[in-house]
């Protein structure tokens, strides 16, 4: 054992707290958008949906963490890391308001539990994988829709500012690029957060967008970029501490590869959730990027 | 590399005056080779008298015998115990009327060879005096600069002249207002000594780190410590060996943190009797600072050249968590090492252990409280 008596103020708890604080603007905007902006045009049951998503996210995370501590790690629940609860909440925030909550909860619980109990968190980006599983499963059984009728009718008349501020169709709490950037600003205040990763991803994607737009302008491509998935994925999912690269050069390669794959998926296949595929694929190799740059 | 300033979490400011503690009843002189001892039990020894090969008495008094002691690194060794008579008698008092500038290079070299001092063996065109102190709450160098600024500058200028050094720099921390003020008020007389101020970053006390931070492109560079300048001054001017040193005694268990001027060889137990301590069993004693220091047993500990500070702090219970792969240790390492990766290896290659200077910054920044330092054992 060789550690100093004094200690910096960096802690895992502070990182998790920063994440929760950074999610607050997105949650408030998500509630505002899904309740006040859209409620008048839909049924009363719609009012509760955004809340249900948040509660389910927190409840699934809490339940898994509780079961893990009780039967596996045997540590007091108060002293455990709360990454699972945070990750569960983040995953649920990506889902559309119009989805089958029962199926989403079951998939989230099973997949998160398997990853947690088999200790696979640092092998790949668990959030990206579970989001892909959820989107895939809900889409397969046609149990999701990213838009209600009112949202869909307004979509074509949205201005750039509308889209940037989060009015476009997308996940329940992730459509606002502006509030995502505010979250990034909040997260940058903790040194434990890998701020270089979202910055490199967003800048590289933007550069690619500009270059390809100069060749051939495509409005849909810009709409995909500002749909919220890219910003939210880059800021909250890609810098996941366990599965992302940690060396300076490793972080550059990790981020640029994510940006390139995401751009290809958006440009060629018009996939709005391409960022999650990119993050998952690149996270599988993130350790290799780090090992390449060990002194 | 990311430079870090340590957070000042405790109110442990030392008082601005130095407390002398040079009259300890017993002085313990470490002897590495017992066969070379030149005196017997009950002999009277004078200050500066050779007790064994290259070992000189720091006080005058009677030899009591041999006793086992230990240093701050918990290394045990035999010590000659001298009952200090407090008179500081020299066998042949030396009256020196020469000033430092009257000495020639040959005379200086002869004195240094006589006392086996090799600090000046490899001087280059540029000489940098590293007056930085990394350890937070330790004020030995600050006090040394404040009290002996004139001696330090005079010796430095003298070395510049006799060794024909082209440039001389004195490096200080920019938040160290007392030292900076004292040096600035004296440095006017020595136009060839340049003052360099650096931010309060941790790790710059290490010469290699300082070189990388301040003199990256300079090649003919040599470093010297302020304490070595005082040593050279005493040896050349007065032909006296250093028998005293400053140590900081501080911590939450000390009522008034202060810098003490103590005789080398004083038992720490005697030092602690002279400072007012808070009575509590929960306190532990940490030797050599809160960053690089480690817990020590004060019963056999004596003041040696290696000891810089004593901290009395409450016991801590810090929970270690699994690594979260944040990379802060790698980002902050002043030597560019990857502590996370090295700690995952079963056997850490010696070349990495040689590169690591044991600054403990990796463990300091770790959010999971993991001990990442690959060099030595520290506070446990």
Fold and architecture overview:
The complex is a heterodimer of chains A (295) and B (380). Chain A is mostly helical and 295 residues long. In chain A, 66% of the residues lie in helices and 1% in strands. Chain A has 14 helices and two strands; from the N terminus they run αααβααβααααααααα. Chain A has helices at 12-39, 49-73, 83-94, 101-117, 126-140, 149-154, 160-165, 177-187, 196-215, 219-225, 229-237, 248-267, 274-284, 286-292, and strands spanning 98-99, 144-145. In chain A, strands 1-2 form a two-stranded antiparallel ribbon. The longest helix of chain A is centred in the N-terminal third of the chain and has 28 residues, at 12-39. The mean pLDDT of chain A is 87. Chain B is α/β, with parallel strands linked by helices and 380 residues long. Chain B is built from ten helices and 16 strands. The longest helix of chain B has 23 residues, at 140-162. Chain B starts with 17 loop residues before the first strand and ends in a 15-residue tail after the last helix. The mean pLDDT of chain B is 87. Chain A binds chain B through residues 1-12, 14-15, 79, 81, 122, 191-192, 194, 241-248, 251, 290-291, 294-295, and chain B through 4, 6-7, 9, 136, 286, 290-294, 311, 313, 316, 318-319, 321, 324-328, 330-331, 336-338, 340-341, 352, 355, 360, 363-371, 373, 375-380.
Question: What are the main properties of this structure?
Answer:
heterodimer; A: 295 residues; mainly alpha; 14 helices; 2 strands; 1% strand; B: 380 residues; alpha/beta; four-stranded antiparallel beta sheet
The largest inter-chain interface, given as chain pair and residues per side, is: A-B, 33 and 48 residues
Spans of chain B of at least 5 consecutive residues whose pLDDT stays below 50 are none
Instruction: Report the portion of residues of chain A in β strands.
Output: under 5%
The helix tally of chain A amounts to 14
């Amino acid at each position: 054992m060789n550690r100093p008596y004094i200690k910096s103020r960096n802690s895992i708890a502070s990182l998790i707290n920063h994440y929760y604080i950074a999610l607050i603007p997105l949650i408030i905007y998500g509630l505002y958008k899904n309740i006040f902006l859209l409620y008048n045009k839909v049924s009363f049951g719609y009012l509760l949906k955004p809340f249900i998503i948040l509660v389910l996210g927190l409840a699934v995370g809490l339940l898994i963490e509780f079961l893990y501590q009780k039967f596996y790690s045997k540590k007091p629940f108060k002293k455990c890391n709360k990454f699972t609860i945070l990750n569960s909440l983040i995953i649920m925030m990506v889902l559309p308001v119009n989805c089958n909550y029962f199926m989403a909860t079951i998939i989230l619980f099973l997949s998160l539990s398997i990853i947690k109990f088999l200790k696979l968190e640092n092998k790949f980006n668990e959030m990206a994988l579970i989001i892909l599983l959820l989107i895939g499963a809900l889409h397969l059984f046609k149990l999701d829709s990213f838009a209600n009728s009112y949202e869909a009718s307004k979509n074509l008349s949205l201005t750039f500012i509308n889209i940037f501020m989060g009015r476009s169709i997308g996940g329940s709490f992730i459509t606002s690029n502006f509030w995502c950037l505010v979250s990034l600003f909040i997260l940058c205040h903790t040194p434990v957060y890998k701020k270089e990763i979202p910055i490199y991803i967003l800048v590289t994607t933007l550069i690619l967008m500009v270059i390809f737009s100069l060749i051939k302008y495509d409005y849909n491509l810009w709409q995909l970029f500002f749909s919220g998935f890219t910003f939210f994925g880059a800021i909250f999912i890609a810098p996941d501490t366990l599965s992302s690269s940690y060396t300076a050069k490793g972080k550059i390669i990790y981020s640029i590869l994510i940006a390139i794959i995401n751009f290809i998926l958006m440009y060629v296949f018009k996939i709005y959730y391409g960022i999650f595929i990119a993050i998952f694929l690149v996270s599988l190799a993130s350790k290799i990027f780090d090992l390449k740059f060990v002194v | 590399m990311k430079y870090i300033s340590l957070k000042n979490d405790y109110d442990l400011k030392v008082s601005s005056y130095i407390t002398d503690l040079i009259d300890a009843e017993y002085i313990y002189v470490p002897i590495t080779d017992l066969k070379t001892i030149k005196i017997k039990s009950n002999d009277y020894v004078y200050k500066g008298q050779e007790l064994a090969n290259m070992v000189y008495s720091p006080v005058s008094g009677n030899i009591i015998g041999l006793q086992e002691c230990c240093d701050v690194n918990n290394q045990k060794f035999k010590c000659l115990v001298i009952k200090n008579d407090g008179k500081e008698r020299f066998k042949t008092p030396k009256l020196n009327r020469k000033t430092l500038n009257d000495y020639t290079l040959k005379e200086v070299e002869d004195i240094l060879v006589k006392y086996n001092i090799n600090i000046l063996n490899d001087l280059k065109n540029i000489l940098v005096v590293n007056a930085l102190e990394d350890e937070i709450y330790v004020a030995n160098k600050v006090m040394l600069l404040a009290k002996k600024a004139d001696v330090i500058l005079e010796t430095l200028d003298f070395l510049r002249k006799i060794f024909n050094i082209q440039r001389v720099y004195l490096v200080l921390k920019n938040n160290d207002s007392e030292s900076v003020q004292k040096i600035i008020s004296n440095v006017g007389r020595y136009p060839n000594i340049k003052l360099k101020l650096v931010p309060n970053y941790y790790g710059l006390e290490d010469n290699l780190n300082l070189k990388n931070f301040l003199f990256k492109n300079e090649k003919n560079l040599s470093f010297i410590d302020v304490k070595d300048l005082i040593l050279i001054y005493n040896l050349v001017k007065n032909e006296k060996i250093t028998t005293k040193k400053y140590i900081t005694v501080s911590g939450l268990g000390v009522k008034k943190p202060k810098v003490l001027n103590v005789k080398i060889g004083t038992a720490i137990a005697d030092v602690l009797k002279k400072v007012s301590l808070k009575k509590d069993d929960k306190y532990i004693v940490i030797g050599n600072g809160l960053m690089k220091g480690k817990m020590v047993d004060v019963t056999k500990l004596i003041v040696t050249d290696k000891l810089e500070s004593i901290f009395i702090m409450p016991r801590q219970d810090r929970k270690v968590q699994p690594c979260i792969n944040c990379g802060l240790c790698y980002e902050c390492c002043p030597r560019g090492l990857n502590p996370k990766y090295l700690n995952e290896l079963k056997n850490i290659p010696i070349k990495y252990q040689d590169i690591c200077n044991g600054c403990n910054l990796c463990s300091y920044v770790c959010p999971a409280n993991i001990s990442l330092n690959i060099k030595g054992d520290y506070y446990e």
